[in-house]
Design a protein that fits this description.
By secondary structure, this protein is of the alpha/beta class. 42% of the residues lie in helices and 13% in strands. The chain has 2 domains: 2-145, no CATH class; 153-469, Alkaline Phosphatase, subunit A (3-Layer(aba) Sandwich). InterPro entries: Alkaline_phosphatase_core_sf, EptA-like_N, PEA_transf_C, PEA_transferase, Sulfatase_N.
């Protein structure tokens, strides 16, 4: 930075915007302890105005105005500055800084180094962490240009069990829901009063998510990715269901970003219908609640009498928490937190989102209770709620951001028709699981058996004596 500042024309143009971006990034880092990296920058590029507006407060605007004034002042001073580059000083600094950074990187797991390294390593320090993130974003963009198209999941070798009655397979992808805030997982507050009463609920407690970001976790969840190989190389399980005669639907609480594909929309694949919020609802982003998904879901269920596979992508517990539920779910109060991130109010608001999620899932259960149906729920990632001063998500090294709920509900008719699948499901309770099981278990619960699969399936191809549909 010292060397760059000596090239006055260059510095006066590029340093001010770098300062401004770094200032804003440091603000959110200071308030929420959000990690500034490639994934956050990609997330900012893919977000919509409604989501962004929930974080644009009067304090942020004031901070931004001050940052702009400082940036303009810095640009003016750099342009008018005089002086020569002191090469000796620069060489001395580099001779110290480069070996020190390499040394700290090599011994990064040492306790003492773990405390020192964040203060000097370029991946943590402003503005270098922004440079590092922008460099990685550029690298990812170049990689995507030469990346092969993802494979349709229908190419997987599979067979399907013949269904005696039409089967409804519904997957619900939650948002920012952490497992330890669900009463069914032992939480002391009554956050899941309705799910507590469901006798056909098989609960797996807390499992490990693929990541702490939606843009990474959701595509991995719905495709055959694993924790060991999280890259999305194949489309979602909906393609596999379509192959075996199911009508396939993606129903989302989020908007489609014009004609551009995010990692999630790209991973959905070629299915029968994709229904995004801005296609079925005129309510603004900030006034949308997951319960508004029930009406279009009901229409989808009633529009077809055969087998259906439906994936629902929810808003769940995404910050801002007290904007995720209506007044009838404001059970834990006060919940009107602001940028002070008052812990009591933040946690009350978050627990109310879980209460709203409980009612939302119960509403879906009620739609298919008397049918041959199975519902699978898990969240994309967890959330920090003030632990060590951290809030929100985005750091895969933080445990509460990676431990998510996972459970399956089945109807009485489904249990009667598929007792072997239900038994296999119950045998997995108490085991340590991750999102690795989400894709293979969903297709298994839909009566599809994967051939030559190395994934953690519920059912092996030879485990059931049943009539199969053509591949």
């Amino acid at each position: 930075m010292y060397a760059v500042s000596q090239i006055r024309t260059f510095a006066s143009i590029f340093v001010p915007p770098i300062f401004f971006i770094s200032a804003l990034a440091s603000y959110f880092h200071a308030v929420y302890r959000i990690k500034i990296d490639k994934e956050l920058l990609l997330l900012l590029l893919e977000t919509n105005s409604g989501e962004a507006s929930e974080f644009i407060t009067s304090k942020v605007l004031l901070f931004g105005i001050i940052a702009i004034l400082f940036a303009l002042g810095i640009g003016y001073l750099l342009k008018k500055s005089t002086g020569k580059l002191h090469k000796k000083l620069l060489i001395i600094v580099l001779l110290f800084a480069v070996p020190a950074t390499i040394f700290l990187g090599k011994f990064k797991k040492t306790p003492v180094v773990q405390q020192i390294r964040p203060a000097v390593a370029t991946k943590y320090v402003f503005p270098y962490c922004v440079f590092n993130g922008l460099g990685q974003v550029t690298g990812q963009y170049i990689k995507n240009l030469f990346h092969d198209d993802i494979i349709d999941s229908s190419k997987l070798d599979s067979v399907a069990l013949k269904q005696e009655y039409p089967l409804e397979v519904i997957t619900i992808v939650g948002e920012s829901a952490r497992a330890d805030r669900f009463q069914i997982n032992g939480y002391y507050r009554e956050t899941t009063p309705l799910l507590n009463k469901e006798k056909n609920l098989v609960n797996f407690g807390a499992i490990t998510s693929f990541s702490a970001y939606t843009r990474l976790s959701v595509p991995a969840m719905i495709t055959p990715a694993t924790l060991a190989n999280p890259e999305t190389t194949m489309t979602s399980y909906l393609g596999l269901f379509k192959k075996h005669g199911f009508k396939t639907t993606w129903l989302s609480a989020n908007d489609r970003l014009d004609s551009h594909d995010t990692p999630t929309t790209n991973a959905i694949g070629d299915i029968d219908q994709k229904i995004f919020r801005n296609k079925f609802c005129r309510v603004s982003y900030n006034k949308f609640y997951d319960e508004m998904l029930i009406a279009p879901l009901k229409n989808v269920l009633e529009s077809y009498s055969g087998n259906q596979a439906i994936a629902i992508h929810t808003r769940g517990s995404h910050a801002r928490y007290n904007a995720r539920y209506t007044n009838k779910f404001a059970k834990f109060t006060p919940d009107n937190y602001g940028e002070d991130m008052n812990l009591v109010k933040v946690n009350n608001a978050y627990d109310n989102t879980i209460l709203a999620t409980d009612a939302f899932i119960e509403s879906i259960i009620d739609l298919v209770r008397d049918k041959n149906a199975v519902i699978i729920y898990s969240s994309d990632h967890g959330e920090s709620l003030g632990e060590d001063g951290r809030f929100a998500h985005g750091n895969p090294d933080i445990i509460e951001q990676r431990r998510v709920p996972f459970f399956v509900w089945y109807s009485d008719t489904y249990k009667k028709l598929h007792p072997s699948i239900v038994d296999a499901l119950k045998k997995q309770q108490g085991t340590e699981l991750s999102h690795d099981v989400f894709f293979p278990w969903v297709v298994n619960l839909g009566g599809i058996l994967l051939l030559n699969s190395s994934q953690p399936v519920l059912l092996q191809p030879d485990s059931l004596q049943a009539q199969q549909t053509p591949q």
